[in-house]
Amino acid sequence: MEEPSGSILTALDELAETAPEKGLSLRQLFDALDERAFGAILFALALPCCIPFLYAVPQIVSLPMAAIAFQMVLGRSEPWLPEKFADRRIDKAGLERIARSGRRFFGWAEKIVRPRLTFLASSVAERIVGALLCLFCGSIMLPFPLTNTTPGFAVALVAFGLMARDGLMMIVGMIIGTSWIGMLVILGPVALKEAVKAILAMVGIGS
Predict the structure, then answer these.
(1) Residue 60 to residue 164: CA distance in whole angstroms
(2) Fewer Cβ close by (within 10 Å): the C or N end of the chain?
(3) Measured distance CA(62)–CA(81) in Å, rounded
């Protein structure tokens, strides 16, 4: 498989086009994206989470994504993929859908992204950003419908900003993700209670 070149969206297009039918393991995806940039890896892993009703793939990538975000908290200079996640695989159809979604959701970002508020790319700020990303990734793991889309979009925006040293885009992503976490904290218990009541009603238990 040829090494992709150019922008992250172009790289994902090339990976989807040249991947075998069985797809790529996360290790292969990681290697193809050069292993050097937290932003590129996080963006590629977050894209499946932005797609509504794409089942299985968000669950494949959420833990590796959280592990990489946690490495930012630890202050690592380069991301490293833990061995236990390296063999998880995304098939060719999944890669093609990810590439299309990248263009659909973030094609506009390539046109406006630029270095600004670059203090957010400093080592201290990146630790704080990493901590927030860990929270967003954690919410993706919740076993409820559509809980991956909003935090996935937030992670992808922050990651895109990291790649371009665009602090404004990072801030927008962090606002979206933090608002989502706040909504889960406030409404989550109520939604869970209603879900339990609905399940009990379906099986004929309770009033």
Answers:
(1) 26
(2) C
(3) 13
Distance CA 167, CA 117 (A): 5
Structure tokens at 66: 């959280």
The two structure tokens encoding residue 82: 């833990």
Give the strand pairing for 24-25 and 89-90: antiparallel
Q: What are the residue ranges spanned by the domains of the chain?
A: 8-202
CB 28 within 8 A of CB 11: no
pLDDT in tens, 102-131: 888 888 887 888 889 988 878 888 899 999
- Residue 6 buriedness (CB in 10 A; 0-12 / 13-18 / 19+): exposed
pTM, to two decimals: 0.76
Stated as kind and residue range, the H or E segment containing 65 is helix 57-73
Helix (H) or strand (E) holding 137: helix 123-140
**Structural tokens at position 1:** 């498989």
φ, ψ for residue 136 (rounded to 5)?
-60, -45
| Residue 183: Cβ within 10 Å count | 13
- What DSSP state is assigned to residue 166? B
